[in-house]
Amino acid sequence: AVVSTQSTGMTTDHLPTGIHLPTGMKGVPEACIDAEFGESPAMEKIRRGGKDKFYVCAFVNFQHGVGEDKVSPPYTEETVDMRFALFKQCVDEVNKQNKRFRAGEDTHQAGINFFCDLTDEERRPYSNGLVMPDE
Length: 135
Description:
Layout: E1 4-5, E2 10-11, H1 31-34, H2 43-47, H3 52-66, H4 80-102, H5 120-127
Antiparallel strand pairs: 1-2
C-alpha cells in the first residue's frame, strides 16, 4: 500500500524495494533517495540540530546508497527501529568529529559509511586488527 500525505508531499511510492522506514514515519521526499550517498538534503539540517524527520531522510539515503557494501543483516519490521537508532548515533558522531576538524581541533574528517547501522558486536570483526585472507 502506498502511503501519501498531501500536506507534506511525502510518499513511499518511490522507495526502492528493501528500504524500510522507522515506526511512525509516513514517507520521505524523493530527493532523499536521489542524493549522493551520505549527503541527503537533510544532512545540513541535522548538523544544525535536526529532528527525526531529517534523520529519516538521511537513513533512507543510507539504505539506498550503501548497496553491495551493506554488511548488516537485512532490516525487518522488528529491527528497523534499532538500526535507525544506531544510524542516528553514527550521524551525530560524524558531525561532532567534523565540527572538531573544521575548528582545527583534529586532523581528520569522518563520513557516513556501511558501519553506521552496525552494533559494536557486528562492527568488531572489521575493527580489531588483521583480517586473514581466505586460503
